[in-house]
Amino acid sequence: MMTGRPSPHLDVDRLIDDRRTRIVVCCGSGGVGKTTIAAAIGLRAAEHGRHVVVLTVDPARRLAQSMGLTSLDNTPRLVRGVKAGTRKAGNDAEAAGSLHAMMLDMKRTFDEIVEAHADPDRAAQILANPFYQSLSSSFAGTQEYMAMEKLGQLRRADEWDLIVVDTPPSRSALDFLDAPQRLARFLDGKLLRLLTAPAKVGGRAYLRALNAGFGVVTGVLTKILGTQVLRDVQTFVSALDTMFGGFRERADYTYQLLRAPGTAFLVVAAPEEDALREASYFVERLDTERMPLAGLILNRVQQVPAAHLSAARSLAAAEVLQAGLPADTARRHAGANDDAPARQLTIAALQLHADRMTQAAAERRIAGGFTAAHPLVPVTEIPAQAEDVHDLEGLRRIGESFDAN
Amino acid sequence: MATRDTDWDGVRLHVVTGKGGTGKTTVAGALALALAADGRRVLLMEVEGRQGIAQLFDVPPLPYAERRIAVGPGTDAHPGGDVFALVADPESALIEYLQMFYGLRHAGTALAKLGVMDFATTIAPGLRDVLLTGKAAEAVRRKDGSRGRTYDAVVMDAPPTGRIGRFLNVSAEVSDLARVGPIRGHADTVQQVIRSPETVVHFVTLLEEMPVQETLDGIAELRALGGIRPGAVIVNMTRPLALPPRQLQAAAAGKLDQAQLAIGLKSAGLDDSHGLAGALAAELAEQARTTLGQEEQQQRLNTTDQPCYRLPWVSSGIDLAGLYRLAGALREQKAA
Fold it and tell me: Which structural domain range is residue B268 located in?
């Protein structure tokens, strides 16, 4: 059993039914089912009458197809098959909501920022630079930054009354908070300015006065990378120079957006050590940053229908049946009542049951660690699904568990 | 040292990749243990700075240094060998590189303080990867006078499947950066190790759509790169359901004969008055549906022709005992 008092219940329905909620950010470490949860929340909100767009980063192919997404094209697509008015009785007939979904194309998003901030010649120069290509396609953090940029764009467009964001599948949930700042800091950092200085007139005198260590910097970089590389960096940086202000401004805008009323963070975790450790860090971090945490969604929780039969008794019973099996051969030959198939089936059921009870106990212990450390964080559990979720019906089923507990 | 006939005789660098959540680090740890049987020395290397190995083996956080963390399984006749661990981060690897090749020890440390190392390893395309793979290649090739190679095998807990091709294809990545010059030379040396028959890339997966898709994509990507060898597909967390196919189908369809269960429960001396048979049937039905879905995914994996190993689900969570159990399962299947 969980230690201490139970956590407050996270009421996802109330969150999405509250018209003041404009942005829901689903975050958590990779492999916990964030994308599915984000899609399920989007669908449920739409079926509760809201106009929703879900921004996903890397959905499973069949899930994406079920939402009508066939390519990473940065365009919100209308999801067909959304039903109206599934909200519980008592309300007037609701106006039907709508659901759009889009997949993030991070390079395209980055290119668009460049194109928006630089004149065509300079933009072309930047887009062709190998450092830009590296930055825009593989820099750890660009995906996070572009997801936030896209969120800002969607918010400004104001075509939807609820935006659900599925954060990139980074290893650590925290990358998502840090990356935009890190990228912005990097792009207008002192270091980069130092590097560009020699390319400017009078750079050398300026440098001597500024920092004796700088000669070492370029010296070492030249040694490792060669002079041509350094030239590429300098070209890249001076080309980006005019955009620096813009980058920082945009990162700040998004950061403020995340702290604004109307934004809610949902931390998604599976009941596993690693995922909950990340969830813990994230919860603490949101608190430090004064970002609005709505609660924890504990996904894929093992449900055991026959919970009153303990793992130990179940295994013992399986052993009793097993022990009875070989001896049965003699009885079978004698034409006696043959219960071997029943025994086989029951052994399989009891072994499976014991396994599930053990797993459920391990999950409760792990989840108990989180709730003991964060007793005030509301929690809701989503049962483990027997199959991969790859259609709206599956998403709807997950959405229904927001209501069930 | 006993010799065994395994699927990977002659392989010295085992790169282990997998989608997030598939248990890549756990499998890398189990593989390192398995390889360390019979007195072999194995280095288990981590490159993503998350201290996953320390957590897995329940030891304090590991530095950028090779530390002995475990003893491989052994017998009286053939005592187990040693597993060493190394947490490689690009910044330390760069400082080490500068020191080894240029004697720039203090400069490197000073540069790290200035943020130059962070800059260089972050922005320079491929530099980060070439430093990390370079460290693995160095460990593979390292010799110490008396016993030949320092390590019999190196196991790398590598980046996730979605990034593995780019991570390993360092020469191509770096070529944009440096057509000539020292780092290019270094990359070419690293590439020789990665593209040699001494290196294979194992894919850890679950029998779920996304991880299987990424595994198939990853294998195809490596094949397309040429020279980088896909290794085994390691299916993690399998839970076989001991039902004959016909019953499996029936269970999945929710048409299991509950009367049979009731008879079995009675034979086992269990009281069915609380609807136990019905509840157990529901559990079987769920698991049967999962199993059928998994079989479908297994079929997809079988199209790759790579050796496939199956590791059992450890319901109580992975601890050291569980890790040795997985290592045993890998050895039984000739993975090590």
Answer: 245-285
